[in-house]
Amino acid sequence: xxxxxxxxxxxxxxxxxxxxxxxxxxxxxxxxxxxxxxxxxxxxxxxxxxxxxxxxxxxxxxxxxxxxxxxxxxxxxxxxxxxxxxxxxxxxxxxxxxxxxxxxxxxxxxxxxxxxxxxxxxxxxxxxxxxxxxxxxxxxxxxxxxxxxxxxxxxxxxxxxxxxxxxxxxxxxxxxxxxxxxxxxxxxxxxxxxxxxxxxxxxxxxxxxxxxxxxxxxxxxxxxxxxxxxxxxxxxxxxxxxxxxxxxxxxxxxxxxxxxxxxxxxxxxxxxxxxxxxxxxxxxxx
Length: 286
Fold this sequence. Notes:
Number of domains: 1
Order of helices and strands: HEHHEEHEHEHEHHEHHEHH
Largest sheet: 8 strands, parallel, barrel
């Protein structure tokens, strides 16, 4: 993938627009959010990734430019087996986006799809998709273990999964290629691992101290080669043809650096190998 192609595939991650989020637990001020979205607009980045869980009582997307479109995550329960209930829940959720289009609905938690109610809930979402409430249905996953069942039982359009220099399971398991053959889009998220790969101050926190030595070597090697962590992570993802790439942002300058990232010469790419699920899966963090 070329650098110019990657920029066109960026999706703004908005988890920390409304709450403390990530390894460094930051929440962006509303003023900074406006600056970020204005910069995104000026660079033709019009996709925003969010979730029902992030938006309780928040009006962060009020008066948003109408070109912005949303990818949003939901956590249905058994009540969603009613089409009427399903529609009402989505209509209430979509109010946060004013009249901006919702492009994709993701299952934020896929457990419900393994239950007896899963098929009916999915069928209801397909009905609403046909009615143009949104355009695509996707899964947001943390690992590839469920994909055999999901692709065999559900007609999904997109899989959103973690990918970064520490976590390449989507590639190593062969699932990236399998999904592409099934004509299912693959979207990457956690490319900076919620800040762990770009912010060395995170390792002062008690939970992450276990890996401090290895990560210190990572940052030292980058500094010695005059490579910014953001440039490194984005250059690494150029090797794979992800359909979209969700980028986490802490401030305006952060987005500016991402947009203007420098492609690194591949023979300077360093190998950081820490195969510890307790580090690469944010659900394990304490």
